[in-house]
Design a protein that fits this description.
By secondary structure, this protein is an alpha/beta fold. It has helices at residues 46-53, 70-83, 94-104, 141-146, 161-164, 183-193, 229-244; strands spanning 2-10, 21-27, 33-40, 63-67, 86-89, 120-121, 130-137, 152-154, 171-178, 195-204, 208-215, 219-226, 248-254, 264-269. The chain is built from 7 helices and 14 strands.
Length: 275
């Protein structure tokens, strides 16, 4: 199966503000450009996309197109339906984002930043009993969880510490939520919204703040807030560990702290390019 990363958006210099050009760029997971072409805004529609993508498709090799930009999803989805291929809405398009930064970074704006919604509160019926920061050895996290009977397990191979070149001695930071009887409800809800990264947002350094979950393409959810200096200091250490682990971290939902049963496990990675 071919997995392509693609973007279709208006990237134009200031002098073309009145008549912007739309740029289509498609690359593979290694960053090799498959297609790069522009069109006037009047031609930016699904039919034009079909005309550009169809000649690239090999009948014997299914194609999935990964798209990170919310404004592009509708166009790609409409084109994909006509082509018989699949579109995946995901922020995990690292090769494409590097290409866009290199190509359009000089235009005095971040070419991969998307407008995000204001953080929403977690539905009250999903609140866990308690939560805590934790660490897990990078060398063990995939093996530890991979063969366990966990209902929701999201550890993609591209986020494994080995594939990211993270030393085995690094301790990955993360958050564990103990959901008690609501554990599976919370895990299923998280699976639906597609977690991407979990970040500490301070309101007062080392005194208070909250944990904000980035999910989907542009959604944000407040998982926890606190006014506790000890917790805030732990949150600061959590963010420092993320820097040492190339942004890789985890989120675990389990009924209790016995360590016997898990409802959901996610490996996440903060996207430094988008900030």
């Amino acid at each position: 199966m071919q997995i392509w990363q693609a973007d279709f958006y208006k990237h134009s210099p200031p002098e073309r503000k009145e008549n912007p050009l739309w740029s289509l760029i498609i690359c593979d997971e290694a960053g090799k450009i498959i297609q790069e072409v522009t069109c006037p805004q009047s031609a930016a529609n699904p039919d034009w996309l079909v005309s550009q993508i169809q000649p690239l498709i090999e009948p014997s090799s299914p194609v999935v197109i990964a798209v990170f930009r919310p404004q592009s999803i509708g166009l790609f989805t409409a084109a994909a339906e006509k082509l018989g291929i699949r579109v995946e809405a995901t922020r995990h398009t690292p090769a494409l984002k590097k290409l866009l930064q290199a190509k359009y970074g000089s235009l005095a704006y971040n070419p991969i930043r998307v407008e995000q919604s204001a953080p929403q509160s977690l539905p009250e019926n999903l609140w866990g009993e308690k939560w805590q920061f934790a660490t897990f050895p990078a060398s063990e996290i995939v093996e530890f969880f991979r063969d366990r009977p966990i209902p929701i397990l999201d550890i993609p191979s591209n986020l494994s510490p080995n594939n990211l070149g993270i030393a085995s001695t690094v301790k990955l930071p993360g958050v564990i939520i103990y959901g008690d009887k609501k554990s599976m409800y919370l895990a299923r809800w998280l699976a639906d919204i597609k977690p991407y990264s979990l970040n500490y947002i301070p309101t007062e350094i080392e005194r208070s703040g909250g944990l904000v979950l980035e999910a989907g393409l542009a959604d944000r959810w407040i998982l926890a807030t606190f006014e506790d200096s000890i917790v805030a200091q732990a949150a600061t250490h959590y963010e420092q560990r993320k820097q040492a682990s190339k942004g890789l971290h985890f989120l675990i939902v389990q009924p209790d702290d016995s360590g016997m049963t898990y409802s959901g496990v996610w490996l996440l990675q903060q996207d430094e390019l988008s900030s």
